[in-house]
Amino acid sequence: MILNSTVHIHERKSNDAEVESLREEYHQRVATLERKVYALTKERDTLRREQNKKSDAAALLKEKDEIINQVMAEGEELSKKQAAQEGQIRKLRAQIREFEEEKKGLITKLQEGDAAVAVAEEVKKNNHVDGKTLDNELEVVEGMKLDKGYISPYFITNQNNKKCELKNPLIIIHEEKISSINDVVKVLELVLQL
Fold it and tell me: Is the pTM of the predicted complex or chain greater than 0.90?
């Protein structure tokens, strides 16, 4: 019995030592697992923070992209409006140039008309026009019809049209009948001096 009790005691001691060894091993494993869990938790939290930062950055990038797209759309719209306005401005400038040319033409016609009216009034008053300057001229070239006088076919220079066309002619107009050469001698002498 002693032997049995001694064996029992040794078995208990041996079991206690094994249990203690197992307990110690268990505590070490639990401590290792706790450290691993703590490290994994810490890593998980770090990854979540990084993910949140990335998602925040992604959200900011998405928001920036949307703003850029809006600005680009507005820029394109403004560019189209500006191009349309520039086209209208070019058309208006062309119209202004046309109107200015038309205005110049009308002013010239008005000045010519004013000169013609002034000449007509002068002729009406005095039955003749005295030119003092060369600024305004009135030249009517339609021909001349003679009621009296000597008309000869030898004056015709253009046989096709039966017209007398003279370049730089000197014409003597006399109100009375020229009966002798003495009536026009002075005028002819002046003509020879030219």
Answer: no
